């Protein structure tokens, strides 16, 4: 259990540092707080069996993105604007 806590702390620190360097708008400490508030509820799921809805959501989003890519490719091919 201590190992999971340590890994979670490191993950939050790396995420906060990355977002602070990427945006430059908020400081490191504020990004750490925002990341903690957003990511902590995800750690409350016990097993992958408890988070089945995440896989359904990801499958749906991948399907939508794939359809949009095919649509855009066909549109560009028919218009003759293929890059």
Structure description:
The chain has 83 residues and is an all-alpha fold. Helix content is 75%, strand content 0%. Helix 1 (2-23) packs across helix 2. It is flat and about 55 Å long.
Summary, kept brief:
The protein has 83 residues and is mainly alpha-helical. The chain contains three helices and no strands.
Shape: flat
Secondary-structure-based class equals: mainly alpha
Radius of gyration: 19 Å
How many structural domains?
2
Mean pLDDT, all residues:
84
Sequence of secondary-structure elements:
HHH
Helicity, as a percent range: over 70%
Distance between the termini: 52 Å
What's the multimeric state? single chain
Classify the beta-strand content into a percent band: under 5%
Number of strands: 0
Point out poorly predicted stretches.
none
What's the number of helices? 3
Tell me about the largest β-sheet: none
């Amino acid at each position: 259990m201590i190992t999971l806590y340590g890994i979670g702390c490191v993950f939050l620190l790396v995420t906060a540092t990355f977002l602070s360097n990427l945006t430059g708008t908020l400081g490191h400490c504020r990004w750490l707080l925002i990341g903690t508030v957003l990511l902590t509820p995800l750690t409350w799921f016990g097993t992958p069996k408890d988070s089945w809805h995440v896989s359904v959501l990801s499958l749906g989003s991948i399907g939508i993105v794939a359809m949009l890519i095919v649509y855009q490719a066909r549109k560009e091919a028919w218009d003759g604007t293929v890059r």
